Amino acid sequence: MVGINNLFLQKKQEFDKTYSSQSEFTANIPNHLTLNKKCNIKSKKNKPNEEYYKWQFFHSLISSGLYQKDYIGSEISFPKGNKNSAPIKMDGAIFDNPIWFDWYKKFHNNKSQEALDWLRKHLIVVIEFKKEYSKDTETVYNQQLKPAMKESECDFCLGIIYDTERLYLFQKKGQNYLRLDESYNLKGDKSTTKDLSIHLTDAYYKIPSFKQVEKRTVEVVIDRSKRTVDDLDIVTGVFSNQINDSISDILKTFDKVSLDNQRGYEILIQMIALKIFDEKKNEWLKYYIQDSENKDL
User: Fold this and answer.
1) Nearest-5° angle of CA 187, CA 188, CA 193?
2) β-strand 123-130 against 156-163: which pairing, if any?
3) How do residues 97-147 score in pLDDT, each as one tens digit?
4) For labeling, which of 142, 143, 183, 221 is most exposed (least CB within 10 Å)?
């Protein structure tokens, strides 16, 4: 069974197969205040332009099941500073509620400040598209994506740069702006732009689903009996210390209960094997510890 995240690449290839020979794409999400806008996706030389990659990304995001189109908008505009200042424009934005477009129209048509407040409280993903072959990703992040992410009043906001099929994932975590993959943040939560390993791209499978982003923006009570493998965090290099600490804690516990021997190691190997089997074979994860069982020995 192909996971949702892995479907992204497949859907991207399907888009290319269908639209590589076409010059126009009809938007299936709001483009600012316009519905069903006809978008030119080729340059004068009949090569894919920035719009091509934008709709390639949106198509893949929606068709893969990562996000529903009712939550997504293109060319979203928020005000900045006084009324004569240029607005903050987002190539793409995702909200946590499908009624966002009603509030968006209310703000732009009626200048409703209540609507603007609502939009900022429900903005969970900001996307910037480029066709620059990653020539200046640091500037794109620091001068375009990061200011747009600051418009979100959620504690967590996902930031995405999609540059000629190269993917970069960022996060707003409280007051910190970091890479989503924690192993890229060279100084942890104290990382500045120079510490974010911006020369490194992200694999498509790292794109979090709507459900995964939502869990980071609202407090969710976890029903461990209803979890799938998609509910688990991706393990990256940043977790190496935690993994080492966990193994150390297990070995210390074995010592406390006189299992620091062959039998103890057999139990450890069986536990790891059970967990791997659980994640590979079961629809619902069945191997877990209840909160009531999580007691210090």
Assistant:
1) 60
2) parallel
3) 999 999 999 999 999 999 999 999 999 999 999 999 999 999 999 999 999
4) 221
> How many Å apart are CA 129 and CA 53, to the nearest integer?
7
Q: How far apart are CA 106 and CA 55, in angstroms?
A: 26
Which runs of consecutive H residues, i.e. helices, occur in 20-156?
50-63, 100-110, 113-122, 137-140, 146-149
Distance, in Å, from the CA atom of 160 to the CA atom of 152, rounded to the nearest integer, reads 14
The two three-digit tokens of residue 134, written as one number:
């990653």
Backbone angles phi, psi at 178, to 5 degrees: -140, 175
pTM as predicted: 0.79
- Phi first, then psi: what are they for 114, rounded to 5°? -60, -40
The pLDDT tens digits of the residues spanning 265-291 come to 888 888 788 777 777 777 777 766 666
Separation of alpha carbons 47 and 64, rounded Å: 25
Which of 214, 184, 221, 177 has the alpha carbon at shortest distance from 201? 184
Domain boundaries, the chain: 4-220, 237-293
| pLDDT tens track for 172-226 | 999 999 999 999 999 999 999 999 999 999 999 999 999 999 988 875 556 666 6
Q: Give per-residue burial for 143-166: e unless 16+ CB within 10 Å, then b.
A: ebbbebbebbebebbbbbbbbeee
Question: Are 71 and 100 contacting, i.e. CB atoms less than 8 angstroms apart?
Answer: yes
- The tokens describing 24, both together, are 């126009």
Distance separating alpha carbons of residues 27 and 263, to the nearest angstrom: 61
**Contact 104/119 with Cβ under 8 angstroms?**
yes
Q: Which two tokens stand for residue 71?
A: 């939550």
Q: Read off φ and ψ for residue 84, nearest 5 degrees.
A: -90, -5
